[in-house]
Amino acid sequence: MRFYVRKRRTAPAVIIVALIDVLIVLVIFLLVTTTFRQQPALQITLAGSTQATPPGAAETPPLRLMIDGRGRLQLDETGPLLKLEQLREQLQLRLAQKPDLKLAVLADTNAPWQTIVGVMDATKEIKFKAVNFSVAGAKPYSRP
Fold it and tell me: Which pTM value belongs to this model?
């Protein structure tokens, strides 16, 4: 008679070190992806004023220069179309009247690059202190 010796299968062992590694990775993932919101300690309602001016209300709006897709220049919406030399003269006159004048350049996406560079050169030559280049869907870039 032959007796077969059955091999006992060992129970599967749970590797604790691997589980700890997985849990640490999950905790780190949750910490990185969770947004933390600061809760104020005091809930207050600020007092209102009828005489206070909103921030930026005292500032004069910037002079707007528009450049269309064909490179034509126009100061403000109502001004005539200008050439680069005429633009230089207009900017000098307006800067002489208001030394703290700001210029906002609104250029079309198809505007010729040479025209934009010419405007930048003109503003540097005249020594404009604040020139903003505005684009759609983004905050304006301000040249120092």
Answer: 0.55
